[in-house]
């Protein structure tokens, strides 16, 4: 075996890529896994058997049908995409974020989002050679409308992301503030595409989808990941066909595989099951929030997502002590100064939540 020449790697791989840390997914074997906003529920056994039979019929030897016609039609119907609007599919909404960055990557172009926010907006921007501009939220994680409008006028971003609700803070931004941003992005001070990221829509039950027809510079992005299908990797973006036709040009052909397409179609036929799971998680969210808030020194922030953000006296210590009790959550306290001593925990089954709450209370003792 010949050795790899480090100087060749240096010559080929970009400086900023070599300087990056790899996206770290912690080993969760044997742990109560509450770090990744997964739905803890699987499909019921009888549906799993039916799905297995369905997947057995899929022609694995064939490429997917172009643009996944049937799945797009089903999504439009089930997700109430307004008439005249289209959807484009991605291998997770992460891929859609990458496509948006690629398509907008003119020299000097920028991507803007409130921070702390979803890290992929900044990462995808960097990969595509765009500059990312983060605009700090207020200390209570509400949108700083004036700061956003000023930053938009100054930086003229190509794309503005608004996650609704936001990750990792969990809150829904004020709809009036958001509308002001969408309108400001129509000019003349700034002309931008605004993407409302509704990854957590099943838990928020609020949406900009019905308002797509009001704004020619708006797209609404969703995913089935947090709804209970994180493993199949399917995201979608809804909006005017003129926008989506442009994005479609940078979409890798066949980006949604036949097993994902068949599984998603099946799940959408049984969407009531997923909706019921989401309703249970919303009820549990209230219970977990109350349990956490009952602990001395803990502030729990309002959440419209399937996770809770809380500030504790010592986040690193609480995280380690939870891990020692076999509970894995996310310590987000180093992500942004506004998140000092903050932890993020996914809402799960009543059993796992009880396990978490017990370990959480114990982790705060001296
Ligand atoms: C999880 C998440 C996504 C990514 O979802 P995938 O479809 O799994 O790639 C997008 N946006 C936000 C805000 C998220 O939290």
Summarize the entry for a quick read.
This protein has 366 residues and is of the alpha/beta class. The chain has helices at residues 6-12, 15-19, 45-56, 69-78, 93-104, 119-127, 145-155, 175-184, 201-204, 225-229, 241-248, 258-269, 271-293, 315-324, 350-363; strands at 32-33, 86-90, 110-115, 131-136, 159-163, 193-197, 218-223, 235-239, 299-300, 307-311, 327-328, 330-331, 342-346.
Structure description:
This protein is an alpha/beta fold and 366 residues long. It has two domains: 6-45 and 272-360, Aspartate Aminotransferase, domain 1, CATH 3.90.1150.10; 62-269, Type I PLP-dependent aspartate aminotransferase-like (Major domain) (Aspartate Aminotransferase, domain 2), CATH 3.40.640.10. The chain is built from 15 helices and 13 strands. The protein has helices spanning 6-12, 15-19, 45-56, 69-78, 93-104, 119-127, 145-155, 175-184, 201-204, 225-229, 241-248, 258-269, 271-293, 315-324, 350-363; strands at residues 32-33, 86-90, 110-115, 131-136, 159-163, 193-197, 218-223, 235-239, 299-300, 307-311, 327-328, 330-331, 342-346. A seven-stranded mixed β-sheet has the order 2-8-7-6-5-3-4, sandwiched between helices. A four-stranded antiparallel β-sheet has the order 9-10-13-12. Strands 1-11 form a two-stranded parallel ribbon. Strand 5 (159-163), helix 8 and strand 6 form a beta-alpha-beta unit. Helix 4 runs parallel beside helix 12, helix 7 packs parallel to helix 8 and helix 13 runs parallel beside helix 15 (350-363). The longest helix is centred in the last third of the chain and has 23 residues, at 271-293. It is globular. The model has no long low-confidence stretch (mean pLDDT 96). It binds pyridoxal-5'-phosphate (PLP). Residues 92-94, 118, 163, 167, 197, 199, 223, 225, 230, 235 line the site of pyridoxal-5'-phosphate.
């Amino acid at each position: 075996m010949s050795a790899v020449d480090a100087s060749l790697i240096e010559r080929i791989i970009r400086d900023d890529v070599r300087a990056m840390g790899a996206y770290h997914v912690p080993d969760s074997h044997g742990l109560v896994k509450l770090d990744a906003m997964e739905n803890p529920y699987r499909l019921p056994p009888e549906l799993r058997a039916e799905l297995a039979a369905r997947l057995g019929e899929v022609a694995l030897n064939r490429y997917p049908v172009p643009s996944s016609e049937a799945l797009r039609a089903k999504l439009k119907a089930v997700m109430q995409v307004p008439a005249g609007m289209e959807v484009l599919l991605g291998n997770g909404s992460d891929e859609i974020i990458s496509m948006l960055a690629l398509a907008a990557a003119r020299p000097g172009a920028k991507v803007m989002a409130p921070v702390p926010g979803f890290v992929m907006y900044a990462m995808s921007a960097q990969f595509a050679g765009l500059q990312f501009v983060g605009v700090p939220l207020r200390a209570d994680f509400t949108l700083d409308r004036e700061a956003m409008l000023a930053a938009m006028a100054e930086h003229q971003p190509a794309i503005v992301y608004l996650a609704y609700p936001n990750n990792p803070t969990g809150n829904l931004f004020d709809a009036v503030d958001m509308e002001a941003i969408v309108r400001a992005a129509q000019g003349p001070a700034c002309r931008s595409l605004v993407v409302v990221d509704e990854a957590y829509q099943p838990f928020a039950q609020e949406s900009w989808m019905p308002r797509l027809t009001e704004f020619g510079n708006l797209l609404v992005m969703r995913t089935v990941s947090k709804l209970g299908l994180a493993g199949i990797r399917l995201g979608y973006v809804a909006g005017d066909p003129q926008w989506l036709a442009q994005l479609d040009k940078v979409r890798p052909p066949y980006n949604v595989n036949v097993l994902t397409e068949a599984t998603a179609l099946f799940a959408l036929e049984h969407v009531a099951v997923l909706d019921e799971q989401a309703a249970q998680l919303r009820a549990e969210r209230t219970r977990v929030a109350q349990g956490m808030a009952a602990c001395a020194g803990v502030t729990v922030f309002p959440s419209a997502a399937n996770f809770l953000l809380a500030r504790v006296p010592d986040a690193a210590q609480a995280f380690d002590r939870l891990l020692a009790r076999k509970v894995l959550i996310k310590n987000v306290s180093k992500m942004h100064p506004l998140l000092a001593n903050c932890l993020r925990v996914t809402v799960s089954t009543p059993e796992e939540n009880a396990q978490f709450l017990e370990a959480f209370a114990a982790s705060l003792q001296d």
